[in-house]
Amino acid sequence: MAENSLGKTKSMYPKEECGVFAIYGHVNSAELTYYGLYALQHRGQESAGIASFDPCQTHFQVCRGMGLVSQVFDSHSLASLQGTMAIGHVRYSTTGSSTLLNAQPIVVSCSKGELALAHNGNIVNAVSIRRELENKGSIFQTTSDSEVILHLMAQPAQEDTFSSFLNALQRVKGAFSCVLMTTKGIFAARDPLGFRPLCLGKIENSYVVSSETCAFDLIHAEYMRDIEPGEVLFIGEEGLKSYFINVQTTKKAFCIFEYVYFARPDSNIAGLNVSKARIQMGKELAKLYPVDADIVVPVPDSGNYAALGYAEQSGIPYYPAFVRNHYIGRTFIQPTQLIRDFSVRIKLNLIQEAIRGKRVIVVDDSIVRGTTARARVVNLREAGAKEVHIRVSCPPHRYPCHYGIDFPNPKSLLANQLAIEDICKYLGADSLGYLSHEALIKACLEANTEFCTACFTGRYPVDFDPDFDKMILERRSFFEHVTK
């Protein structure tokens, strides 16, 4: 595994972004937030946090920690989070390092009172805004891009919390689906292009907000609707109040990779169930790249439904020959370079009897660096596979994402460096087929939105700093410090 200039280990996998959750008006707000975060754990496993507020008290209660939801919270910490409203966050660091300092919700006390923010997405002009605010005397406590929203709110130009939040959101560019808790209620906001999901639900007489609807299912909340791109929703004593950020564009750019990989299959986003979209991707893949074979094998878990679609369309039997170890996280760090595919083997093992002598179609959601895909082909050959045909349920990843997914430098993206036929040779497969851009859009036609496909096409809907990457704020802070 390579390391960047700050010594942080780079993973070979695409990384999740974050998940946010909020509830207003429930006596068990923190406990329900805990379960909501449990349902959103797939969106981030580095840290988790909950902030709650009891109107009988004067300050927010906060619990944050590194690790999974089950590792951060216990019965004692949940009991300390009293109140009738709460917000929560699970994080994978897409801007800023993975440290407790950057765990969310970020809680501050300023002229607008106490504020707590949980954010999913990337603010692509965070560096220039931060530099401007620091020149005015702002002191930042994290290297997360999310913090600039709170500093913009603390500026004296606006007197009330609502105006300051709205104006802050009009200043920032990029992707944000966020929840903001004040002592008066909870704001839920989504960027004008709608990069990241955010939805509204109800449990009893209380309102809930979540990155995905799967969290509603767990706590038996009723899904009401998606929060619209550009919408700022306030939940308070008088119920719901909806506002919209003043922007000139009507186009939308929902991240289509949510359907391919990130979102849970039991979630519904923009009117389309995620598992249904993946099954359709598999069917389109089978139409584009048919091949004579004996079994269709999914790469669990995000490849399961695409493989099912491929099997249904092709008539070739579906067989889950890879067995996943569910006790290993998505970002397992291999201990040495001597066992190059150790992280693959410890996460996925093969039922060799199902593979031996068979012509195998392997359906995966994506190939990023290609290291794991290549190791899987080796494992299949060792298990006695007669042929190995790889099918990928999205187009080749050729460009980095700047809106909340930690895709690596383009030089590390296999499809950016090699032609498809050369990728097939590198993987050691008998054939390779990627879903086309047109077929991917067709598979998601039922979604009531337009899509961002920049990681496939290089066409970015929002301009960004060309030097922008995950560690830009760490580099900026370090080099500005040592040169003064």
Automatic annotation (TrEMBL):
<dbReference type="GO" id="GO:0000287">
    <property type="term" value="F:magnesium ion binding"/>
</dbReference>
<dbReference type="InterPro" id="IPR017932">
    <property type="entry name" value="GATase_2_dom"/>
</dbReference>
<keyword id="KW-0328">Glycosyltransferase</keyword>
<dbReference type="InterPro" id="IPR005854">
    <property type="entry name" value="PurF"/>
</dbReference>
<dbReference type="InterPro" id="IPR029055">
    <property type="entry name" value="Ntn_hydrolases_N"/>
</dbReference>
<feature type="binding site">
    <location>
        <position position="365"/>
    </location>
    <ligand>
        <name>Mg(2+)</name>
    </ligand>
</feature>
<keyword id="KW-0479">Metal-binding</keyword>
<feature type="binding site">
    <location>
        <position position="255"/>
    </location>
    <ligand>
        <name>[4Fe-4S] cluster</name>
    </ligand>
</feature>
<dbReference type="GO" id="GO:0004044">
    <property type="term" value="F:amidophosphoribosyltransferase activity"/>
</dbReference>
<dbReference type="GO" id="GO:0006189">
    <property type="term" value="P:'de novo' IMP biosynthetic process"/>
</dbReference>
<keyword id="KW-0808">Transferase</keyword>
<dbReference type="GO" id="GO:0009113">
    <property type="term" value="P:purine nucleobase biosynthetic process"/>
</dbReference>
<dbReference type="InterPro" id="IPR029057">
    <property type="entry name" value="PRTase-like"/>
</dbReference>
<keyword id="KW-0315">Glutamine amidotransferase</keyword>
<feature type="binding site">
    <location>
        <position position="455"/>
    </location>
    <ligand>
        <name>[4Fe-4S] cluster</name>
    </ligand>
</feature>
<dbReference type="InterPro" id="IPR000836">
    <property type="entry name" value="PRTase_dom"/>
</dbReference>
<comment type="function">
    <text>Catalyzes the formation of phosphoribosylamine from phosphoribosylpyrophosphate (PRPP) and glutamine.</text>
</comment>
<feature type="active site" description="Nucleophile">
    <location>
        <position position="18"/>
    </location>
</feature>
<dbReference type="Pfam" id="PF13522">
    <property type="entry name" value="GATase_6"/>
</dbReference>
<comment type="pathway">
    <text>Purine metabolism; IMP biosynthesis via de novo pathway; N(1)-(5-phospho-D-ribosyl)glycinamide from 5-phospho-alpha-D-ribose 1-diphosphate: step 1/2.</text>
</comment>
<keyword id="KW-0004">4Fe-4S</keyword>
<feature type="binding site">
    <location>
        <position position="302"/>
    </location>
    <ligand>
        <name>Mg(2+)</name>
    </ligand>
</feature>
<protein>
    <recommendedName>
        <fullName>Amidophosphoribosyltransferase</fullName>
        <ecNumber>2.4.2.14</ecNumber>
    </recommendedName>
</protein>
<keyword id="KW-0658">Purine biosynthesis</keyword>
<feature type="binding site">
    <location>
        <position position="452"/>
    </location>
    <ligand>
        <name>[4Fe-4S] cluster</name>
    </ligand>
</feature>
<keyword id="KW-0411">Iron-sulfur</keyword>
<dbReference type="GO" id="GO:0051539">
    <property type="term" value="F:4 iron, 4 sulfur cluster binding"/>
</dbReference>
<feature type="binding site">
    <location>
        <position position="364"/>
    </location>
    <ligand>
        <name>Mg(2+)</name>
    </ligand>
</feature>
<feature type="binding site">
    <location>
        <position position="401"/>
    </location>
    <ligand>
        <name>[4Fe-4S] cluster</name>
    </ligand>
</feature>
<keyword id="KW-0408">Iron</keyword>
<feature type="domain" description="Glutamine amidotransferase type-2">
    <location>
        <begin position="18"/>
        <end position="238"/>
    </location>
</feature>
<dbReference type="InterPro" id="IPR035584">
    <property type="entry name" value="PurF_N"/>
</dbReference>
<comment type="similarity">
    <text>In the C-terminal section; belongs to the purine/pyrimidine phosphoribosyltransferase family.</text>
</comment>
<keyword id="KW-0460">Magnesium</keyword>
